[in-house]
Amino acid sequence: MNFASEVNVGTTPVREGHRxxxxxxxxxxxxxxxxxxxxxxxxxxxxxxSNPTFxxxxxxxxxxxxxxxxxxxxxxxxxxxxxxxxxxxxGACGFPVARICGVCGDDGVIGTGFYIxxxxxxxxxxxxxxxxxxxxxxxxxxxxxxxxxAQLHSIDHLTVGLGGFGRPGNYFQRQIGRWTRxxxxxxxxxxxxxxxxxxxxxxANIPPGDETTLVHGDFRVDNLIFHSEEPRVVAVLDWELxxxxxxxxDFAYHTLMYHVPxxxxxxxxxxxxxxxxxxxxxxxxxxxxxxxxxxxxxHYRFYITFNLFRLAAIYHxxxxxxxxxxxxxxxxxxxxxxxxxxxxxxxRQATG
Length: 352
Known about the structure:
alpha+beta; Phosphorylase Kinase, domain 1; Aminoglycoside 3'-phosphotransferase, Chain: A, domain 2; 11 helices; 10 strands; 39% helix; globular
């Protein structure tokens, strides 16, 4: 049984601890979203780790609600206003995202800030091996992912009005510092020897040179909606970690699928790529390089190690939220249990 696909597909009744005043939300939506009318029913999506996500069912169609989680929050985390802003800007220039219908920063409506977006229909794959796709079609789906990320990295953030979306330059130094602080400042989740070593190794091995583009920060197959019949990405989801950053960091996060097993994320480690007719990592890198005008990606191992560390820090944060009782997903406890293994994989990358 594929754990990830079983626990993430579909919706469930709103979980205890994530309930809110549905009447207040419906009233706000009727006043602020064109065409919104009740009655409204609410279900909670099973997937998602950080910001609780809900399906709003109305006679006129379905919407999606993303809100900050209840309870104490780490400083700078769960900035749903940023998620909405980047999707609004990208949608205006034709990049595949869900249309934002309304944003509310007033905690008084349902207890936390939130936004509502359109419900995009299509296919979501929770397994990077794409078992639902015919063997002959898998390369085309992988190429669609590759092309979508290359498209994102080719967008001029100044032209689309996102010049202030982050700080250009010194991306790795700032990100290593951010995730190190988040790791160290969450004592509930405890310390880990592999993470402690990476805290020292990463800043000492930052490659020379710098680039700045829009980066998604969590570009995985399970954060994409494909067309219901075509190998085409119709929406990229979950923009919580998006910012201005280094495109090769973003790309290497995406290619973590080649290094991490399916039980941790939508990974391919240990899979028979040839038998599945899935591009090899080197061929996938080459396709991205062709699309972005690169000859190769020097220091690729650093980019992979950095992303493993960052993902492990995210899992460490999930572990802390599980301990505090504020985790937003039913599978958060499983993610928390996988933290130590993910940190070990990161540590092995750093040591070669």
